[in-house]
Amino acid sequence: MAADQALARHSLPADVFLDLARGGGGAVAAGHLHDAQYSRRLLLLQGVPRLAEECGHEHAGRIRRAYALLAGIQREAPEAAEAVVRYPTVGSWVTRALYALTGQPPVGSPADPVELAAVAAAAAVRSRRSATIEVPIVAGGVTLPSLGRAAVPGADGFAVVRSGPGGAEITAGRHRITLPGGTERAGRESDPGEPGWEALRWLTAEHRGVRAGFVLDDHDPHRMPGARWSERPLTGAEPAEWGAMLQRTWRVLVERHPAVVADVLGTLAVVTPLRAPGGESTSATSKLAFGNIGMSAPTEPFSFAVTLAHEVQHAKLSALIDLMPLTLPDDGGLYYAPWREDPRPLAGLLHGAYAHMAIAAFWRTERTQDHPGQLALRADTEFAHWRDGTREAIGTLRASGRLTRAGELFTAEMARVMDAMSGDEIPAAARDLAGDSAGRHLARWRLLHGARPGGSEPAGPGTAAPG
Prior knowledge:
Layout: H1 14-21, H2 26-54, H3 60-76, H4 78-85, H5 88-102, H6 116-127, E1 131-136, E2 141-144, E3 148-151, E4 158-164, E5 167-172, E6 175-178, E7 197-199, E8 201-207, E9 210-216, H7 238-256, H8 258-267, E10 270-273, E11 283-284, E12 292-295, H9 301-323, E13 334-335, H10 346-366, H11 373-399, H12 405-421, H13 428-449, E14 464-465
Parallel strand pairs: 9-10, 10-12
Antiparallel strand pairs: 1-4, 2-3, 3-7, 4-5, 5-6, 8-9, 11-12, 13-14
Helix pairs in contact: 1-12, 2-3, 2-5, 2-8, 2-9, 3-4, 3-6, 4-6, 7-9, 8-9, 9-10, 10-11, 10-12, 11-12, 11-13
């Protein structure tokens, strides 16, 4: 179904690679990564009907017809098809659907290959093409990726989605749901007032003429595989509270963190609400759903800003690794990371170091501001803690002997960025707090994991952990 241009071989110019290694990249790097991910998804989509036929899947015929519909829309209305295929949840669904067809363990819950019909139906609705297709009902609803969800309680099996120039409707048992006008328009929220239709909502903010807009996806069953996402959609005042906090956060970022703004605008399309276990804030990024981050409800703007900076780094690095490996195949080695209680494989340590490089940079900027006492102390302490921990983790990476040539170049540039921060003076109170926190973390880690095989114990952050 893919156009030759979409399936062209992807590579990164050297300057873009180095910008990414320094923690930035902005719109230019994000454009390369998004295009590569789009090509990847097109290739994966091609494999679904083929593998379904080969393994004798019970719905192979439905899957084949859904693929044919999607391919036809791509030829006749390529923008509509592309908008759906680029939507992050399509990436997480198609990868896990192929796992299911090949018998590999899924990431999170399994994904049903017949849900290709929902992808095709979403493209049909966006293109206003005349089409009728049966779409599986999942958890009491029909989800059309990038658009929303039709609630059909009590129905099971398949619903029928009909689209055309005049609009679209979904029927399932006694339910008949008309999709509101404008549903197919990218970048606009549909009218959520139609009975039975749960439109995707938007988080928006603007400061000094710089506008942010992200889909708030609390519907799609493939929005964040493996994460503990909220079991119910946001209700009442909750969406407005998210929006108000984004506005406060966006002001901080626009005024003082232009590189983070550029990365967020270039990379992020969707935010998925997560549960906060024990009341503690949490966030996550799935390598299968580029463009989406998950996070629990933000409580104050600085933590929200750090979460955006941190998770966008994970997203960029995952997409980069799809283009070029930075570490050699996992040999079972595990390493100490100052931000985790568990020993980490080298690839995980690289991810953590790259994300915490952005956290250190954020607080380095904030500590130059005229903040009141406690916030000033927080900025100094957070900077000292993550600067030192990240530098040591990068040292572990570079000494591991397990990096590819690209990985050596990447981590060398990371080291240069962190070395430039090493001369910053830290007030004694913040230095002591950061040191105490790092020491307690290492002590807990030693208590949990002990010494390496052979009797050597990790001497400090960045040393190898038990294998």
